[in-house]
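Hi P.,

Sorry for the delay on this. The queue was packed all week, but I finally got your sequence through. Input first:
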Amino acid sequence: MIPQSKSGSWESWHDPQDPPRIGVSQCLQGELVRHDGGHTRDTFVVDVLAPFVAFTSVCPEVAVGMGVPRPTIRIVKQGDAEHLVAPSTGKDWTAEMKQYGEDQARSYREAGLDGFLFKKGSPSCGLFRIKIYNGAEKGASVDRRNAKGLFASTVLDALPDLAAEEEGRMNDPAIREDFVERIFAISRLRRLLAAGPSRHDLVLFHTAHKQMLFTRHEQKSRDLGAYLGQPGDHAHEDFVAGYAAAFRSIFTHRSSVGRHVNVLHHAMGHIKNMLDGEQKQVLLSRIEDYRAGQQPRSIALTLISFLAQTHKVEYLLGQLYFDPCPRELLPGDRLQRKWLERSTDEDDDD
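Then the structure:
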């Protein structure tokens, strides 16, 4: 599990026989399980993500017995409670769906699920802005707020640290990058824990993820580093469990441009004494261009990675921040290549 070379490549930490374990709404895989007997096959899910992960698919509406095809359902507010109802039949599916969600959450925990891609807009699986109706009758008013589908909310109540997203949000480059990097980091942690890590193993694992962690939450990352330095005066199993819980918690925070800029400057600090004035200025310019939204982060990353390899800076070469997951999964890869080609041409002209 721990790469002997301390390589910062995701592949050196990866086990193709045990890839990230991802739950997915079954309709996104092209299965004919929608209420109308159709599907919502998603290209990212099927053609891009699938080769790199192991899917656990589910259609909770079929699983609780609604059938295919089936009457449409909606979340209806009744007093202070919200119910999952089929308006055309009056059938209330709330109890069945909650029970199924609780059962599945236990199963996901036992299986070590690393993440989940839910179906956007579904009253069972949606994660954001699900319609809440103020009645089951036709024409009932709608309360739009940041509500979840009943199955999704039940699962996430039980598994609050699960990396969960909707397939529709994978079109947002920042959200997609955040989700992909997170599921690969959590899967690495899962395999580390399964191997029964020593304290030294934890230190190596943490060191490789250090800059990634800082892009999520700097203070919590510093606290976790300090935790690893504590005297070993308590049960090792509890110590490992404490580390794992804190690691997962940090990855519930989203990265930001500002935190990435800080990490890029920190990485530059490890090589700046090896650079001449012109090289330093070029690198600083690339970082500032990223901050200003004028170039993708990959330009600065590629340059720092190249300089780290040139000068054999082992700390940077061991950082997964520079290669956290398959590049095929990252958004805007074609755009980033264009920026890199343009940047190279400009350097040549200079």
